[in-house]
Amino acid sequence: MTQATTIRCSDVAAEPLPGSAKQATIYVIFEWTRAWSRDVLDGDTFGQELTAKLKAHLDEAGATLQLIRQPTREGRNIDNHHLYVVFAEHGTIEVLHVDGPEAILDLDLSAPLRCGGVERTRPLLLVCTHAKRDACCAIKGRPLVTELEQRFPSADNGDVIWETSHTKGHRFAPSTLLMPWGYSFGRMNVEATTAMVEAARNGEYFIPGNRGRGTLTSTSQVAEIAVAEELARTGRHVNYGQLHIIDEEVEPDAGTATVTVNDSRAGVAYRVLLNTRTVDGVISSCGKNPQPGEVWDVVSVHALGCENNEDRQ
């Protein structure tokens, strides 16, 4: 009798990556070396009383919580906890060293760099290894983060590489978040991820595996990546923060969208036309049945010329 083969959700590449990024603008990233429950704010990680206070504080600011830990056993022997506050729209990271999760309640999340910490200029790469959320994150995330730690050891690189809790989209595992810009990446091998980290050190936009920027809608995520691809195709340089969404018009009934993206370096705006498409066989999590899903496809990218557009993100 042949045993049925288990199909992991991340083994089925039914969807394109662009447009699937975790949406958030403010990230509170807290180092926690103890166990992570399936939902880190379900009360099992920090206890019901503290969790309720944390949720209220984060919800008031519209912030999302990521837990992190070092990949190595030595790195988890800590005297205090790293606490990063990221304002992705502004591209800022503030770092503090605190005694425990209660310190999150004291954060001023009303604007960037108001928490009394130190501004960090190096990027952070968070690799999801949250096995209790989905097995794919452990199966594919842990080997990646282990290899990256060897290539970018914390002692020499300032804690660039971290394991993290759920990043949305375990079907794209290994799934990563790149800070301070809030970009999600998926289906990345170690060579591609190494190249992405090296590029991020110089603020250079990385296209392979890019799921989009979480500060944007899914439609605008697709459009921004399409413009970055067009610029790269024609040999032009792109940095994070260079492209800005200045208009988005979606026609749900028609399944169409028009997004205008401004290249602030060149002063050129691009109009991106998109259509929706139904894809079959999307497995959202391991153990679930395949379902149809809706994705956005790029129809065209058209340069409008040099214009003084007022950027809006």
From TrEMBL:
Q: Which organism is it from?
A: Corynebacterium cystitidis DSM 20524
Q: Which domain of life is it from?
A: Bacteria
Report what the protein is called: Sucrase/ferredoxin-like
Matches recorded under InterPro entries: Aim32/Apd1-like, Aim32/Apd1-like_bac, Thioredoxin-like_sf
